[in-house]
Automatic annotation (TrEMBL):
Lineage of source species: Bacteria, Pseudomonadati, Pseudomonadota, Alphaproteobacteria, Rhodobacterales
Purpose of the protein: Catalyzes the dephosphorylation of undecaprenyl diphosphate (UPP). Confers resistance to bacitracin.
HAMAP family: Undec_diphosphatase (MF_01006)
Domain of life of the organism encoding this protein: Bacteria
Protein name, UniProt field: Undecaprenyl-diphosphatase
NCBIfam families reported for this sequence: PRK00281.1-2 (NF001389), undec_PP_bacA (TIGR00753)
The EC number(s) this enzyme carries: 3.6.1.27
Bilayer topology: Multi-pass membrane protein
Keyword set, alphabetical order: Antibiotic resistance, Cell membrane, Cell shape, Cell wall biogenesis/degradation, Hydrolase, Membrane, Peptidoglycan synthesis, Transmembrane, Transmembrane helix
Amino acid sequence: MSDTTLSALLLGLLEGLTEFIPVSSTGHILLAGHFLGFESAGKTFEVVIQLGAVLAVMGVYAAKIGRTIVGLPNDRHAQRFAASVLIAFLPAVVVGVLAHDVIKTVLFESPRLIASMLILGGVVLLIVDRLPLTPRHHDAERFPIPMAFGIGVIQCLAMIPGVSRSGATIVGALALGADKRSAAEFSFFLSMPTMAGAFTYDLYKNRDVLDLGAVWEIAIGFAVAFVAAVLVVNWLLGYVSRHGYGLFGWWRIIVGTVALAALSMGF
């Protein structure tokens, strides 16, 4: 197995394992790519394997998505649920379009910033996980519209690599009254339009520099990301219901600290 193929396998596994847990898949992918010396033109590899994770969560929730779509014409519950996800998605659209170039060319090229955000996000996650919050909302499909919008605004913090999209949305949902399980589940639902939109916009912005020559590496990364993401989505809800988010906070702190130490030594 070539070094490039091994890197593609590792990065695809990282994407699938970390996309839906609050540890920042982008941070892990960018740091791993930096230390492995792996880079693709226009971030083609990174963009396409993210689609694998998007399709994974859509597959897990295919039945629920289908029921919602079928019920949109006359089911008020379906209409309200779809509206809450759409409204939560809109802030990311505005910020993502306006700040896309800065995010991709400045923030994504700063490994120290990414590592620092991993540590800071880990501390925040540990604090929020231990606060004596009293949940008022236990069904992700019934979050009030203002609450959904608030989660969407908080999600915009994840434009900074290392913050974590799922971490921002989960912490936002917990702070706004969700229990731990419904916070994670709403993060799953919101990930579908957010990640699909980011994938489409990245593909459009990088259309002139995309490198589709490394088809084998892209295919490996995509497939591994898909399978790993399916396993994580199916496992995560039960885990956080029983144990909370402390494990992920400590993981972020450890990874961020090790990365900063390695960068300080010139790696």
